[in-house]
């Protein structure tokens, strides 16, 4: 029997920049680096891609389709 002691690793899923929902593996999502800041990774889920929902970089405020 497994003894869960509370040290189980947390799975942190990336969050969609457009709708703030968790990105699920296998979804038609995409990730890319912000054009303005090379350290900022932007995730978009499949539905936001289809809807061409705008995204906004949290660091520099850059937004685009
Ligand atoms: Zn989304
Ligand atoms: Zn940025």
From TrEMBL:
It comes from the Archaea. It holds the Pfam family HVO_2753_ZBP. Residues 16-61 form the Small zinc finger protein HVO-2753-like zinc-binding pocket domain. NCBIfam families: PRK14890.1. PANTHER family: SMALL ZINC FINGER PROTEIN HVO-2753-LIKE ZINC-BINDING POCKET DOMAIN-CONTAINING PROTEIN (PTHR40733:SF1), ZINC-RIBBON RNA-BINDING PROTEIN INVOLVED IN TRANSLATION-RELATED (PTHR40733). This is RNA-binding protein. It comes from Candidatus Nitrosopelagicus brevis. The lineage of its organism: Archaea, Nitrososphaerota.
């Amino acid at each position: 029997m497994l003894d869960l002691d509370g040290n189980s690793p947390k799975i942190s899923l990336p969050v969609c920049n457009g709708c703030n929902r968790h990105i699920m593996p296998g979804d038609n999502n995409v990730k890319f680096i912000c054009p303005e800041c090379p350290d900022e990774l932007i995730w978009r889920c499949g539905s936001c891609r289809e809807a061409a929902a705008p995204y906004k970089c949290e660091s520099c405020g850059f937004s685009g389709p």
